[in-house]
Amino acid sequence: MPRMPTSTSRTKHPSTSPLVFFLPLAFLLGLGAGYLFWGLNPAPAAATTPGARRVNISVGNSPSLGPENAPVTIIEFGDYQCPYCKLWYDNVYDRLLASYPGKVRFVYHDFPLDGHPEALPAAEAAQCAGAQNAYWKYHDALFGQQYGLSNTAYKQYAQELGLNVQAFSSCLDGHRFQARVKDSYQYAVGLGVGSTPTFYINGIEVIGAQSYETFQQLIDQELAGKK
Fold first, then answer.
1. Which end of the chain is less congested by CB atoms within 10 angstroms, N or C?
2. At what angle do helices 135-144 and 151-160 cross, to 10 degrees?
3. In terms of pTM, does the model score above 0.90?
C-alpha cells in the first residue's frame, strides 16, 4: 500500500475524496453480506430443475422410514450437530412425511463433519438405539436436543425412550457402530457430498436446508412421472 504523504500543503497535494476510500470498503462489505445471505439462506439447488442428472445412491444398511417400494425415495446425508440439519428437521421433516403417507421412503445416511466433535458419537448413539429398534425415536430426540449432545445426554435419551441403558451404554462406549458411521461418511465423500444437509430425491440432488415447497415441487414432479 503506498505511503500516505506527510506534507500538509494543499497546493501540492489536492485533497482526496472520501469516496476513494469508501467504495472499496463498501464493495468488501457487500461481498461479506452476500456470503452470509446465501450461506444462511441457501438458494434452490440447480439440480431441482426438470431433467436434472440423477445419481444412483445406495440405501445400504442405513435406517429408513416408509415402504421399500415407495415411488419416491428421499436420502439425507446429515450430521446431528449441524444447525442447518436441525433447521430442516424442525421446519420440514414431519410436515413432509405427513403429506405423503405411503408414497415416500426416507433414508438417513450419516455424514458427520470433522468440525463437529459430537457428530460422530451422536451418529453412533443413534445406531446403538437402532440395535434396539428405536432408531427413529432416537433420531428425533437428537434433533430435539433437550439435553444437548454429549455422552451423558446420549444415555439420558436412551433412558427416557425406555431402552436397555446398560446394553446401550456398552454399545456406545465400545464404539460398536463407529466403523459403519465412518463407512457412510466415506461413501458420501466418494459421491462428492461436501456439506450437510444434502438430499437426493429419487437421485436428484438438493443441497441445503431447503423449504418444504422445494421438496414438495420435486416430489410431486416425481409422482406425476410415475403415473
1. N
2. 130
3. no
